[in-house]
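FORM 12-B: Structure-to-Sequence Request
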């Protein structure tokens, strides 16, 4: 079982599955949403994700039709995204985890649109689009 929370602690959650794969998304929307060079996320099963506290603090922004970015309305922490056409899955923002993880697989996606000032200095697989 993994636990996580937003920056202010209003939102807490539990994830009842391990995280073995991470992706680092370099698309322009993820850069804007995080204010950083890329978004670090994991694809999880939505039925394994339990919101423990803070439902009233959650806000949603649809960055693309059918894609909803869920964040804490109090502190702004991005928590996960959900897609209308894939209700069984969320894309969990890994920086919100409070439990340490050690994923075995990591990959960079949408590297064709990465920030020009960002250097990818690791040996993880890199994909110009979505694999």
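FORM 12-B RESPONSE
SEQUENCE OUT:
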């Amino acid at each position: 079982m993994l636990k996580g929370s937003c920056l202010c602690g209003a939102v807490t959650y539990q994830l009842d599955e391990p995280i073995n794969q991470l992706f680092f998304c370099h698309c322009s929307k993820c850069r804007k949403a995080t204010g950083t060079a890329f978004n670090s996320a994991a694809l999880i099963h939505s039925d394994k994700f339990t919101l423990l506290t803070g439902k009233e603090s959650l806000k949603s922004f649809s960055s693309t039709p059918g894609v909803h970015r869920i964040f804490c309305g109090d502190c702004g922490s991005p928590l996960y995204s959900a897609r209308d056409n894939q209700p069984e899955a969320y894309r969990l923002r890994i920086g919100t985890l409070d439990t340490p993880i050690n994923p075995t697989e990591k990959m960079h996606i949408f590297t064709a649109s990465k920030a020009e000032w960002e250097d990818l200095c690791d040996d993880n697989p890199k994909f110009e689009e979505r694999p």
